[in-house]
Amino acid sequence: MTPLSSNFLVPNGTFIIELIAFILILVVLAKFVIPPINKAMEARQEAIRKEFAELDEAKADANSAKDEFEAQIADARKEAARIREEAREQGAAIIAEMREQAQAESTRIVEHGKTQIEAERQQAIASLRSEAGNLATGLAGRIVGESLDDEARQSRVVERFLAELESDTAGAS
Question: Taking the model in full, what pTM does it have?
Fold first, then answer.
């Protein structure tokens, strides 16, 4: 071996062939492998960008739906409060109407009772007059000693007796 051939700084033929093979592999990789890989990476990056954009859009939609939902709930609460207030007012009106009807019915019953009592009083007075008249005629017949069977005579005697009785009562009081 010559000292020149053993110098490691001087390239030999194997190195040149290896260098050519390496450059050839780099060219093949640059021409046929790297462009599809770059294309796939760019497509993937674009897909990720789209997913983030869709995510932001979905987030905005969700926030607007949430705001709309909260507005609907607030409206529903207002409507429920209004309905409750209307029901309360209707209940108060119904109660007032029922009280009014009960008062009218109570007044009607009291008036009917008074009328009935007055009718019964008049009937009792008439019955008492009749009985007092019969007793007075019987007693007067015994005292006078004649019969007072005649209806007209009996009626006159009873009326006169009751009139005197009422005048005596009025004078005493």
Answer: 0.41
